[in-house]
Amino acid sequence: MARYIGPKSRIARRFGEAIFGPDKVLSKKNYAPGQHGNNRRKKSSEYGLMLAEKQKAKYTYGVLERQFRNLFEKASKKSGVTGEILLQLLESRLDNVVFRLGIAPTRAAARQLVSHKHIVVDGQVVNIPSYSVRPGQIVAVREKAKSLEVIDAALAGFNHSKYPWIEWDENVKGGKFLHMPERADIPENIKEQMIVELYSK
Questions:
Q1: Are 181 and 165 in contact (CB under 8 A)?
Q2: Closest by alpha carbon to 160, among 102, 104, 107?
């Protein structure tokens, strides 16, 4: 599956946010990348701001343009607030649920665990990161992968009560996806309405 594999600190600096997780470079250089990044004046049109918000959402969830467009079209066909539904669809991706459960430290690491068949959904191995988890389904670590150091390290000290739409079960080393998250419970700093306006142009 195609995905962004370029320099992550550069992208984080472009948005001024650690969208891929803790970033040592961003903490030292909190300005745009490039030779004149520190002197560059931030001037952007309304369209530029909307485009930047869409790009930030894509990079945050590790989704490419076609996938993102498909998710938006799916969200726009559902009844409700399109922007919020879009975020809910992104949050219900299997790689994101694995990340939210604390099984992996980043979404990229979660994507790798899924691709390498270390994750099961309702007891069945699923190796498609974009798989849409439905309410009531249980996402867990595969039995033979439960001893992986990378998983133990990620879970160490993780607060499983952070996300009210997921219920952790230590016995299965996984959790149940209870329901779609409310917008107030999604911590990502994304102005989803700007994305809706961009695609509506």
A1: yes
A2: 102
